[in-house]
Write a structure and sequence with these properties.
6-stranded mixed sheet
C-alpha cells in the first residue's frame, strides 16, 4: 500500500485533536472506506475551534500525528483538515455566464465558469471562502436543474451557497498544521465532513439536521432536497455540563468530569432520591455522598438550554419541528445518556445518534461518536475529485489554501515540532 492510497483526516477540536487514517477498499470506485488507524490527544491552545496559542496547538497536533503514525506504521504526508467556529458563516450567491459553444451544448467548462462567477460576490476584506456549494442551475428559462451537463441553451445560471471564515483564523489553523510537516489537502467545514458519514442521502433529501456536540461548542448543518440549507454554531458544549456539575457539587473540574462520564444522565426520572455515590471513590480526599438525581437535574438543565438554542436555529430557517428525517446527534457530547430522549421531547422531531456508517475498521474508534468528524474527513478525502464541478463533490472544491505558494509551505514545514 502506497502513501498515495491513504486518506487522513485531522479534526482539531477544543477538547481533543483526533486523527483517522483510511484507504478505499480495492476494486471499489468511491466505495467502502477501511479505517486502518485512529488516535486522539488532549488539545491545548484551542478554544471553540479557534487557535489562541500556536505553539501549544502545534504540540498537540504533532503528538496526535506521531501517535497515529506509530499505529499505522506509515508517515502522514498530507491530510484533510476540519475548520469550525462561530466565525464561519454562509451566504447565497448567483453566477451567470453565456454558454460558450456555438451549438449551445453545456460543457464542464461552462459549469466551472458559472461557479467561478458566483465566487466574485463581495466578501468582507477579512474573510476567505472555504466552500462554494452549487444548489441548482438554470438554463435559459428552465429552472431547478441539478446537473446541466449536456443540455442546450444560451444562458447558464447557478445558485450557490458560499461558506466563508475569518482570514486570521484560517491562517492560524493552516500555519499550525504546516508547522507539523503535514501538507493540507483541503480545509473542510467540520460539520459538513461529519454529515458525510452520519447522514444518508435519503435523509438529506427528506430534510435532516446534523448536530455535532463538541466540548466547547455545538455545530449544526441542516440539509433539505439534498442541499445544504443552513450552518450554525452554538457556544455551548459538554464542557459546560462539566462546569455546572463542578459548581453544583462544589468540587474540582476533574472530579466533575468523572462524575459526568460515569454517572451523568439528562433524564433525572431514571433515579430515585436514594441513588447516591461517594465522591471519595472518584478522587475526593474525604467521604462525601451526593445524589445522582441532583447531578442529573444539573445535566438536564444545561442540556435543555443547548436544545433550545438548536431549536432557535431551526426556527430561524422555518424548520422547527418540520424535518421529516429529524435530527442526528453526534460528537463526543452526544454520548450523554438520556440526551436522545430529551431531544425528541424538546425538538419535537425524530432523533438518533450518528455513528459513522459504510466503514470497516481494525479499530473500535469507528464506533466512537467523538471520531465522526475525523472519519468524515477521511470519507471526504476519498470522495474528493479535482476539477469535478457537479454535485456534492463541489462541497470541497474551493480551498483558499490551494493558492499558498510552495515557499510558504516549506517555511511552515521546516519548523515542524
Amino acid at each position: 500500500m502506497s502513501n498515495d492510497s491513504l486518506f487522513a483526516g485531522i479534526d482539531i477540536g477544543s477538547t481533543a485533536v483526533r486523527i483517522a487514517v483510511g484507504q478505499r477498499m480495492s476494486g471499489s470506485d468511491r466505495g467502502q472506506i477501511h479505517i486502518i488507524g485512529a488516535s486522539e490527544v488532549p488539545s491545548e491552545g484551542i478554544n471553540r475551534g479557534v487557535i489562541n496559542s500556536i505553539e501549544d496547538a502545534v504540540s498537540s497536533v504533532s503528538a496526535c500525528i506521531e501517535k497515529v503514525e506509530r499505529t499505522t506504521g506509515m508517515p502522514i504526508g498530507s491530510a484533510w483538515i476540519s475548520i469550525s467556529g462561530s466565525h464561519v458563516d454562509m451566504i447565497e450567491s448567483k453566477g451567470v455566464v453565456a454558454v460558450s459553444r456555438p451549438d449551445g451544448e453545456i460543457r464542464e467548462e461552462d459549469i466551472e465558469r458559472a461557479v467561478d462567477a458566483a465566487q466574485t460576490v463581495a466578501t468582507p476584506v477579512n474573510y476567505e471562502i472555504i466552500h462554494v456549494i452549487p444548489r441548482v442551475f438554470s438554463v435559459d428559462s428552465q429552472k431547478d436543474i441539478k446537473d446541466p451537463l449536456g443540455m442546450t441553451g444560451i444562458r447558464l445560471e447557478v445558485d450557490t451557497q458560499i461558506i466563508q471564515g475569518l482570514t486570521s483564523h484560517i491562517k492560524n489553523l493552516t500555519k499550525c498544521v504546516y508547522r507539523t510537516g503535514v501538507n493540507i489537502e483541503r480545509l473542510v467545514l467540520g460539520v459538513l465532513a461529519t454529515a458525510e458519514v452520519v447522514a444518508s442521502s435519503r435523509q438529506k433529501e427528506l430534510g435532516v439536521a446534523v448536530v455535532n456536540v463538541g466540548g466547547a461548542s455545538t455545530n449544526i448543518a441542516v440539509f433539505e432536497h439534498g442541499d445544504i440549507l443552513h450552518v450554525g454554531s452554538i457556544p455551548l458544549g459538554s464542557d459546560h455540563v462539566t462546569a455546572d456539575i463542578a459548581i453544583g457539587l462544589r468540587t474540582s473540574i476533574d472530579v466533575a468530569e468523572r462524575v459526568k462520564l460515569q454517572y451523568g444522565s439528562a433524564t433525572p426520572k431514571t433515579f430515585s432520591k436514594s441513588d447516591k455515590i461517594d465522591l471519595q471513590e472518584l478522587g475526593v480526599q474525604d467521604s462525601e455522598e451526593i445524589s445522582l438525581k441532583y447531578v442529573s437535574q444539573i445535566v438536564e438543565a444545561r442540556s435543555e438550554e443547548l436544545l433550545e438554542k438548536v431549536d432557535k436555529e431551526l426556527k430561524a430557517i422555518g424548520r422547527s419541528g418540520l424535518l421529516p428525517a429529524g435530527v442526528v446527534l453526534t460528537g463526543g457530547g452526544a454520548k450523554l445518556p438520556g440526551l436522545v430522549d430529551l431531544a425528541k421531547d424538546k425538538l419535537r422531531l425524530p432523533v438518533q445518534l450518528g455513528y459513522p456508517v459504510g466503514m470497516t475498521s481494525i479499530t473500535d474508534r469507528v464506533n466512537d461518536l467523538a471520531f465522526s468528524g475525523a472519519i468524515g474527513l477521511v470519507q471526504w478525502g476519498a470522495n474528493d475529485v479535482p476539477n469535478d464541478t457537479r454535485g456534492g463533490n463541489l462541497l470541497g472544491r474551493y480551498n483558499p489554501m490551494e493558492k499558498v505558494s510552495k515557499g510558504i509551505k516549506k517555511l511552515f514545514g521546516a519548523v515542524a515540532q
